[in-house]
Amino acid sequence: MKIPLSCIVERVSCACRLLGHATLGCLIAACGPEHLTAEASCGVTESAGRESVFEHACEHARVGPFGTLDGGRKDAELRNTHMYYAVSLRRESDGFAGQIAFVARTTARHGFFLSADAPLRLSSAQEELCPVAMVGVGDACASLARVQSYDLYEGQRLDVTLGPWSQPTVSLVVELQ
Questions:
Q1: Hey, is 163 helix, strand or coil?
Q2: Domain 5-176 carries which CATH code?
Q3: Per residue of the chain (177 residues), what is the pLDDT tens digit?
Q4: How many angstroms separate the CA atoms of 14 and 29, rounded?
Q5: Of 9, 10, 58, 162, which sits 20 to 30 A from 65 (CA to CA)?
């Protein structure tokens, strides 16, 4: 498997941040949780989700606000965090897929919560970004399957690619963490 450069840089950066920290708790907090994911992309790991982490995103899945995006259009843009979007995907030879634009409005860790285990990738013009964590929601919220977290900076322009997936729609909510 080809590991994106951003992942390698993140892991080196993580190791450098840890030089002054000796606790396992710091290691987990700085570099992500400890169990392998089903996708295992970028060497990212997964841990059991804690209900409190997902409560806010789950609330959006239950009561909104709600929006729709057409992932098959070139001008589709996810403009709001704290909104539960139904993203329609276009049919391709290997399933359904789509792409939407996203611009981070603040420098922070962003969680991309998905309603299903559909593949999700974030990329900039230069590279594919490596998530700092992938966490399965488990029983914490019936409307969400997992979250992928990324450290983004203000003004960063990204393409959010969903799929290929077996269904024509997947739901997504982005939250600051």
A1: strand
A2: 2.60.120.380
A3: 234 444 444 443 443 333 333 322 323 333 433 333 334 445 444 444 444 557 888 898 999 999 999 999 989 999 999 899 999 999 999 999 999 999 999 999 999 999 999 999 999 888 899 999 888 877 778 899 999 999 999 999 999 999 999 999 999 999 988
A4: 10
A5: 162
